[in-house]
Amino acid sequence: MIQNNINIDNRIRFLLYRINNNLATIEEKNEYLDLLLQGGYINKTDYDKNKKELTNKGNSTNLGEAIIGIGIAVLVGTLLSKLFDKE
Fold it and tell me: How many C-beta neighbours within 10 Å does residue 38 have?
């Protein structure tokens, strides 16, 4: 289970990098949202809201900013949890 979480976190970081640099495809943005839900980083309500916006707006700037915001929160949470796990 731990290895699976590491793989998910690494993929999330990769996809966030692509989103941040305007390189991500719609499929990658969808995968990113799917992984956030699967990893427990967002709830079903947030997932559905973002998925609907992605479907309706495609590569909209506002959606990109929202997705990046979620990703940054995920990364900070991951880093903090790893920091506290070591102590």
Answer: 14
